[in-house]
Write a structure and sequence with these properties.
Elements: H1 14-24, H2 28-41, H3 46-58, H4 62-75, H5 80-92, H6 96-109, H7 114-126, H8 130-143, H9 148-160, H10 164-177, H11 182-194, H12 198-211, H13 216-228, H14 232-245, H15 250-262, H16 266-278, H17 283-292
Helix pairs in contact: 1-2, 2-3, 3-4, 4-5, 5-6, 5-7, 6-7, 7-8, 8-9, 9-10, 10-11, 11-12, 12-13, 13-14, 14-15, 15-16, 16-17
Length: 294
């Protein structure tokens, strides 16, 4: 699952600019030091607390970041970005109900900001308010239908809720927006697999593999689809590639052995079953006993 962040336009001063330069260079602790100094000089400047909070978030110090976002909000309740980012910090701290409150207030300030609804949808999904999450993801998409992340999140939730067709539709939309999106291809492939559309599933896994050719999980998924299509030779090729990526993958040897057995290549199959056993998949030895030692 994906959450979006936002930013503000700061009040410029020398110490602040040094802090921002450090932030841009990913020197977050140094940035915090500069923002500390800037706050000492101007403790009533909400923007300084905001950017110190952002630096703390980069260091996964979400509780301290929430405190700084809250200080910024006390000083200026009109900035929607303050509420959005405090909401994101609350999500990071798993304070989902509090995050929802922040996004509710942000919506009052700007009801046309798709990020607000998307992030609130994620928070609602996290507390199992699935209808509310679907509504928020849908509103986000109505406001911005060009963001593939919104389609993917809603598609994943549709999948979880068992609405496979809606999930496929969302993953397809994400692919139209971003044709190189592995997550969309993989998840659409999984939906097709669950529907028994194995050829479609294998095609989606193949498209994902083109984008990320060294991802063994994609080869596992495609091999399983190919086995379902009784294409044991092609599945064996997938397991062979997995083994080339990790020669100690016992499951790949075992599964390739099953493919070889179905191809009546008993010697190759038994070699793979024995190798799987040697690598720690001990149930393979029972297959050796029952299949190979006859």
């Amino acid at each position: 699952l994906i959450i979006a962040c936002t930013a503000c336009t700061p009040v410029k001063n020398e110490i602040f600019l040094k802090g921002m330069e450090s932030y841009d260079d990913e020197q977050y602790r140094t940035a915090i030091t500069y923002f500390n100094d800037a706050i000492k000089e101007d403790p009533g400047n909400a923007e300084l607390y905001f950017y110190r909070a952002k630096s703390k978030m980069q260091l996964d110090i979400c509780k301290d970041a929430i405190d700084d976002y809250s200080r910024a909000i006390i000083l200026d309740k009109t900035k929607v970005d303050y509420f959005i980012n405090r909401g994101l910090a609350n999500i990071s701290c798993q304070n989902y109900n509090t995050a929802i409150y922040d996004f509710d207030y942000a919506e009052v300030l700007d009801s046309t900001n798709a990020q607000i609804f998307f992030n609130r949808g994620y928070a609602r999904e996290s507390i199992e308010d699935y209808p509310g999450a679907i509504d928020d993801y849908t509103t986000a998409l109505n406001l911005d239908s060009t963001n593939h992340k919104y389609f993917i999140n809603r598609g994943l939730l549709f999948s979880y809720l068992g609405d496979s067709q809606s999930a496929i539709s969302d993953f397809s939309s994400a692919i139209l927006i971003d044709p190189n999106n592995i997550l969309a291809y993989k998840n659409r492939g999984d939906e097709y697999f669950q529907q028994g559309k194995l050829a479609d599933a294998a095609l989606d896994y193949s498209n994902a593999i083109i984008i990320e050719p060294d991802n063994s999980a994609l080869y596992y998924s495609r091999a399983e689809a190919r086995i379902g299509l009784n294409d044991f030779l092609a599945a064996a090729v997938d397991y062979t590639y997995i083994i080339s990526l990790n020669s100690k993958d016992a499951t790949a040897y075992y599964n390739r052995g099953i493919c070889y057995a179905n191809l009546e290549m008993k010697s190759n199959a038994c070699d793979d079953f024995k190798k799987a056993g040697e690598l720690g998949l001990f149930e393979a030895y029972q297959v050796v006993k029952e299949f190979c030692e006859k």
